[in-house]
Amino acid sequence: MTVCLGQLVSILGSGLSNFALDVWVYQQHGSVTELSFLILASSFPMVVISPFAGILIDRWNRRWVMIFSDCGAAITTVALIILLVSENIQIWHIYLASIAISIVSGFQIPAFAAATTTLVPQKHLARANSMTQLSQAVGQLVSPILAGFLLEFIHLSGIFTLDLVSFVFALAILLFVRFPNHKTTASKETFKVSVLSRTLDGWRYLKAHYGLMALSLFFAGSNFLVGIVQVSIYPLVLSFASEVQLGTILSFGGIGMIIGSILVGTWGNSRKKYINLFFYFMFLQGFAIAVAGIYPSVLLFSTASFLFFLGLPFVNSCMQIILQKKVSPDIQGRVFSFNNAIAYSSLPLAYLIAGPLADKIFEPLMLQDGLLASTIGKFIGTGNGRGIGLMFILLGGLNILITAISYQYKPLRNIEDK
Q1: For position 249, what pLDDT does the model report?
Q2: What pLDDT was estimated at residue 286?
Q3: Packing angle, helices 298-326 and 332-343, rounded to 10
Q4: CA distances from 160 to 72, 78, 80, 82 (A)
Q5: CA end-to-end span of the chain, whole Å?
Q6: Which string of DSSP letters, residue by residue, matches 372-416?
Q7: In the chain, how long is the greatest CA-to-CA distance?
Q8: 83: which residues sit within 8 A by CB, 6+ positions away?
Q9: Any idea of the CA torsion for 236, 98, 64, 118, to the nearest 10 degrees?
Q10: Nearest CA to 219 among 319, 130, 323?
Q11: pLDDT digit string, tens, across residues 24-35
Q12: 179 and 29 Cβ atoms separated by less than 8 Å
């Protein structure tokens, strides 16, 4: 609970910075492609570094891995504050800072997931993961509204300063709390083996267990679709709503995520299979994405945001619990890191193509004189943002389709029985 408190404060600070920075970059450049490059810089390095980070996470004290990660993020934030105050900030500075924070996140996220199994017994993993999701949900609820307000009064430099304070608080918590040491037998046995060979331990483990590999690949496919949505959501909403309304819409998502996190903890000890809950809420997320694109309405988009984020804690927690229960603690760092690398490997491609898809293909199709204006445009409307709306409908439908196909694969469907 103490560690989750520190992470909650850190998530709030990061949420403020991420929302404000995304809005600031889009307003400065007015391009979905430019925004997609920023999100790419925030994710691709983590995918690359994760498999190698797993070796160190299994060998080192996981608390210190998290401490060093927070220190790296804090130093990067200080550099951004200095550049903003001196008015020397350039777009490439922001890209570089995003890359640095993404690298330390590649250590911090799997280290925290692996440490959870030593902090709580298996019977409480669902509740522990629900607390983690609840922390993220509070950040999702509070950060957009607060950032939209603060951006006008204390500007980007002030928001980064608050983010820095949140890092310091989380760091103080980690320095205070002691983590139980995990067994490192497997790591010691492989100490003399090459770094590449030890890095591939996580891959070999997943490859030997068809259900776990299928889970990672399915998540990668879904993330590809959601990644395109992630880049496009701000331009779509800002085509018919204000920054304040955008923050309100995302905060509805935060409410849904809080309710979902509470339900994960409540249902954690039920007899329902986690993999079934995982599939149920994957269907719900695909439906929510499709609904968001139908009509430019704040109310409709808020409802879709609520439904999507209601399912997010179930999707993330169920996947995490399955891995935590199936993988031996001494190799969890490598397996979790490689799982993250596979699951999120599709995001960079999604971020790269999202901008051109929106700017060059779908938006022109749905202009008032566009190719689809007289057909599909009669149902979902034409003009600014309607092309992205059509993208959302197609992406949501595809997400439902790959969920239905994946459910037919028996090793994945029966993953908890083996």
Answers
A1: 87
A2: 96
A3: 150
A4: 15, 8, 8, 10
A5: 32
A6: TTTTTHHHH--STTHHHHHHHHHHHHHHHHHHHHHHT-HHHHTGG
A7: 67
A8: 89, 90, 93
A9: 20
A10: 319
A11: 777 776 666 677
A12: no
> Which amino acid, residue 96?
L
363 and 387 in contact (C-beta within 8 Å)?
Answer: yes
Residue 218, pLDDT above cutoff 90 = yes
Give whole-number Cα distances, 403 to 223, 286, 416, in Å. Answer: 12, 9, 18
User: What tens digit of pLDDT does each residue of 369-381 get?
Assistant: 889 989 998 999 9
Structural domains in the chain, sorted by start: 2-179+201-413 (1.20.1250.20)
Give me the mean pLDDT over the 204-210 stretch: 87
Instruction: Using the Cα atoms of residue 256, residue 105, residue 161 and residue 88 in order, give the sign of their dihedral.
Output: negative
CB distance 27 to 148 below 8 Å = no
Residues 273-310: tens digit of each pLDDT: 889 989 999 999 999 999 999 999 999 999 999 999 99
Measure the CA–CA gap between 385 and 372, rounded to whole angstroms.
Answer: 14
Report pTM: 0.72
